[in-house]
Design goal:
The protein is 43% helix and 17% strand. With 332 residues, it is of the alpha/beta class. A 6-stranded parallel sheet has the order 2-1-3-4-5-6, with helices on both faces. A 6-stranded parallel sheet has the order 9-8-7-10-11-12, sandwiched between helices. α1 packs across α13 (320-331) and α2 crosses α3.
Amino acid sequence: MDKWIIVLPPEGAARLAGEQLIPAFNNVVGSENVKTFDSLTYRSAFTSLLKETDHNMIADLLNQSLFVQCIDFGATHVLVLALSPVTLFTLNLLKKQSIVTVHWFYEDYREAVYWRDVVSGYNHFIGIQQTEVKNVCQSNGVMFHFLPPAADLMPAMPILPAERKIADVAFIGIPSQYRINILEQLAEGGITLIIGGSQWDTYQGPLDKFIVKRGWISVKESLELQQQARAGLNLSFHDPAFSREDIHIGPRIFTILGSGLVLFTEKAPNSDAFLNDFDYFSFESVTDLVDKIKGCMHDYLNYRIICEKNRNIVLKEHNYQARTQTILSIVR
């Protein structure tokens, strides 16, 4: 029987995804065959032990602890989740012990740039973009696999009745100039919004009246806020006009669909290929988006059946238990 150590990242949305994946792994593989290495616990412990904070020493101690735990547990596989501070040196040591190293990199490769330094240490690299990452993996002799994260639904929430919806579109996420420009044009076009997320506290402008939470939002809060809208909007952090092949499928897409909302997302090859089973709207310009939102809102009641169908697909096929099964199938 395979034995897995899963490295949990220390913070942020990457950690939240890991906290949902690990129980699913326990259910599928058996809790006796899964051990969590919580990098936050070790980082905090080593930080408190040192008289002066030395980040390099903390990283070394953390990686030494991971290696020892892998040997002690008799691990056959190590699954390192995105943004976990595991070094190339440690990965190469694990491979020398015939331990299969796997990384699920559910981050944008242009933002989380550490991956280039460690990619060669993995047997399997699972990404959410298929161009640059796939090419680098192939040049390093690393097996590349495409797999988006699952929906943030814990537990799945009931769909609010249509009469309790108070806005047209919800967007939950940190602001960027591109996102702000799109949202401001939607507001100018008469679309009512629900906006929330970290870093919106620095924003001042026409979207102020739509911002309902200007700080970190838990999964539960995010689901509750989105339920108050008829549709959900998925936007890239950067303007995708010149790099649509790099648009990744993040958990927001599946969370929107799983929440029973109409999905509006940028047109992208990855989305078009992976979301064939769903009914949703894609767009390439703000004008196109405004027109499609207004048309949908005018005929919203007829979309309720479609939303329920989308939700059922997500609950069945795009949860973390399904993702666990996929990971197991591609690395064996």
